[in-house]
Amino acid sequence: MNATVAMTDYRRNRIHPKKFALLIACASITMMFAAFTSAYVVRQAAGNWLEFRLPDLFYMNTGVILLSSLSLHSSYLAFKRGNTRLYRLLLAGALILGLAFLALQYQAWQALAAIGVELTTNPSGSFVYVISGVHAAHILGGIAVLILAALHAFVLPHRITPTRKLRFELTLIYWHFVDFLWVYLLLFFTFQS
Amino acid sequence: MANVVTKPVVHEDDLLIEEYGYDDHFHEHHHGDKYQSNFITTYIFSQDHKMIAKQFLITGMFWAIIGAAMSLIFRLQLGFPEENMAWIKPLLGKWITVNDAGVGSLAPEFYYALVTMHGTILVFFVLTAGLSGTFSNLLIPLQVGARDMASPFLNMLSYWFFFLSGTIMFLSLFLNTGPFAGGWTAYPPLSALPQASSGSGAGMTLWLVSLVFFVVSVLLGGINYITTVLNLRTKGMTMWRMPLTIWAFFVTAILGLLSFPVLVSAFLLVMFDRGLGTSFFLSEIFIGGQALDHVGGSPVLYQHLFWFLGHPEVYIIILPAMGLVSEVLSVHARKPIFGYKAMVYSILAIGFLSFIVWAHHMFMSGVNPFISNFFVIFTLIIAVPSAVKVFNWIATLYGGNIRFTAASLYAIGFVSMFISGGLTGIFLGNSAIDIQLHDTYFVVAHFHIVMGVAAFFGMFAGIYHWYPKMFGRFMNETLGKIHFWGTIIGAYAVFWPMHYLGMAGVPRRYYRFDSFAAFGQFDAMNQFITIAAIVTFGFQLLFVINFFYSIWKGKKMTSRNPWGATTLEWTTPINAGHGNWPGKLPTVQRWAYDYGKDGQEFIPQIQPLGKDEKESH
Fold first, then answer.
1. Among A15, A49, B51, B417, whose CB has the most other CB atoms within 10 angstroms?
2. Which residues of B touch A15 (CB under 8 A)?
3. Which are the contacts of B287, defined by CB distance < 8 A and separation ≥ 6?
């Protein structure tokens, strides 16, 4: 076995080091978006700020990503119960919904441009593009991990080993994180303008 | 584990580890393929924290030499603007313009590029990666009693992202338009408008890309450091038994993890302004009578984001140095560190305060003066934990049986530098005094002494002290002491006079001063500073020679614990292999500073408390 597994034998805390490391990474990503949204607030206070209504697609899309999270979580529960069919089905569902979210975000940007708010029109719009764009990049990372998880699910026999459980949990934590990050961002956009 | 040297005579530490240690079955697993099985996995793509530490250190030294050499070139310009610099043309090429009389002078735009690169390289590559990268990697697993970092693979990536970042920055030095020249802080519009200056084009693009990779490196490292400290401490190593080095690295990693992402945000917005026409930081700008398309951006917004990283960054630089100095002082004074808990609380306080003082870098940038008051107060409060630390270092030395080795001299020198530089910080932290002092050589003197020279002193103390742990040999002590005295005298000679320049209002960053009659009186002082800088640089070459010579030819380490230190790293074999301890993991029985207790010179952390013995704190 590799060294990290060996090292877990003597770890002090109950939380697995990799899970802990992922949580720290999430804290770090949170700081990045905290910076973006603080910059938004500061810039908004300075005036010359175009007010506009977010296209409805952004709101609908929030439902899509929440469903994806729900699907992945149910898949995780099915995985633990040993229900292979549901585990695979719901994991594929989460992946497809994740991809749909990306596609719909792209549509939402186009809808935004269609109402006259292009990337360079005014910082108020630029912020929406940049913040949701950087968020989409993080979703893309999540999609990559989900594809890997789906490969595991469909190729490997369904066995509930500590390693596979850990992997799934790591995927789950990250996916929930980027999901709730989007909910925060949407609420921010809605109530800040 | 072929490279573990097992000594024929059984070592007392081994007996203690064997008796009280913890068997984690580490050596029953097979690691040989991934770790140190061939040249590439041993020296290049190593996942062993000790090797990664050396990689960070040597890469940092490479950058330190380049960054310091750049400062000599622009110091020559400042000290001797009339002198012929044609002799350096073979190195700098077109950046030295030779006039009809055959007198070569440094091109002004390259002067700015040198100043910018000097700052960027020293702050990020040398004093962040070279200092905390080296010693966090070397000491965290060794001193907390772990086999390696939580994720050796991410740790390796951390170094290679740093290497990639450095390579990109290095390439930018050779661009036809020159590297970025708008200052290491990269304020817009010089950073956000590609046409603003020759270095703002391709030079700035490479600068941004390089630093984004650098942040990735810092984050990968930081995640590992925090996880290792919190999750992989050996049995008995409670937080309150950790050496101060580990506390310092731990808080440093947290600071980096929370502040560097903010810098990435700022950089992303700059990239959008540069490439995609947004106006985050670009206000209405006219170039040659033509208005640019940008409308309504705020350059001050960038400054806020930048300094939200920038200020914690100076503590990211100084905290590891403080941790190293605390440890080295205690070991070489043969006394427990004075006020251990106060030291820990001051590290935490400094770390916390570092996040709410950033705008003291912007008093003169058009920030509301009432808001400035807030930042003045918190800035001045930082003096309290800093003073606690200084008091404790001096109290540790007081009455100690001090061994004046190169390491301890540097640790003492650190305290001197930190006091000198810290006191001027109290002046600069006042927004009213800052009206006179901002952007002058007073600022240059302040931050060079307090976080440049002081951090270097901490680093040197660490290198001289832990060199035997890294290479199994000692550096030459005599050369080390010559290096110390040359450096401390030289550094004061360079930076002390700058305070006077600054108080007289001499602005920093200027290419030459001859058109200002008021500054003519400082010509001799500028010459003196330049000469002192060249001499000080010469002493650093002595260090470099000593360092590399000693790797192969230095005095061999014959005992495991040459300094008589209590911490765990000295219980490993002289050339520890992967996993650090050949058998069981040591368990920790006491805090890290039992020196001179109950008539014993020192008691290692692995030794259980005696009968009736009380733990020291």
1. B417
2. 231
3. B195
Q: What residues does each domain of chain A span?
A: 16-41+60-192
Provide the β-strand partners of residue B507. Answer: B440
| Ranges in chain B, pLDDT < 50 | 1-2, 7
* Chain Cα centroid distance, residue A100: 13
| Probe site for chain A from B262, B267, B276 (most A CB atoms < 10 A) | B262
So what's the ipTM on this one? 0.91
* Cβ–Cβ contact A18 with B under 8 A: yes
Question: Which residue in A4, A9, A39 is closest to B265 by CB distance?
Answer: A39
Domain ranges for chain B: 51-284+293-297
Kindly report the pTM of this predicted structure: 0.94
Contact call for B298 and A43, based on CB within 8 A: yes
CB atoms within 10 A of CB B291: 10
Residue A33 reports pLDDT greater than 70: yes
CB pairs under 8 A between A and B: 145
First to last CA, chain B: 38
Q: What is the pLDDT of residues B260-299, one digit of tens each?
A: 999 999 999 999 999 999 999 998 888 888 888 888 888 9
Top CATH class, A16-41+60-192: mainly alpha
CA distance A30 to A26: 6
- Name the superfamily (CATH) of residues B51-284+293-297: Cytochrome c oxidase-like, subunit I domain (1.20.210.10)
DSSP state of B234: P
B305 chain-A contacts, CB cut-off 8 A: 35, 39
pLDDT, one tens digit per residue, over A84-142 is 999 999 999 999 999 999 999 999 999 999 999 999 888 999 999 999 999 999 999 99
Query: Of B375, B379, B365, which is closest to residue B303 (Cα–Cα)?
Result: B365
Residue B113 CA to residue B168 CA, distance in Å, equals 16
> Can you say whether the dihedral through the CA atoms of B229, B308, B58, B545 is positive or negative?
negative
Measured between CB atoms, does A43 come within 8 Å of chain B?
yes
